[in-house]
Amino acid sequence: KFKPKPVEEKSPVDEYVNAPAFNDTLHVDNRANASFVILARNSDLDGAVRSIRDIEDRFNRRYRYPYVFLNEEPFSDNFKKRISVLTSAKVEFGLIPKEHWFQPDWIDEEKAKASRDKMVKDNIIYGGSVSYRNMCRFNSGFFFKHELLQKYRWYWRIEPDVHFHCDINFDPFLHMEKNNKVYAFTITMYEYEATIPTLWGHVHDFMKLHPEYVHPNNAMGFMSENGGEKFNLCHFWSNFEIADMDFWRGPAYTAFFEYLDKQGGFYYERWGDAPVHSIAAALFTSRDQLQFFNEIGYEHNPYTHCPKGGNRWEEGRCSCDPARSFDYDGYSCMSKWDRFMDLRW
Ligand code: GDP
Ligand code: MN
Question: I want to staple 181 with a disulfide (CB 3.0 to 4.6 A). Which of 169, 252, 291, 344 is the partner?
Answer without folding.
Answer: 291
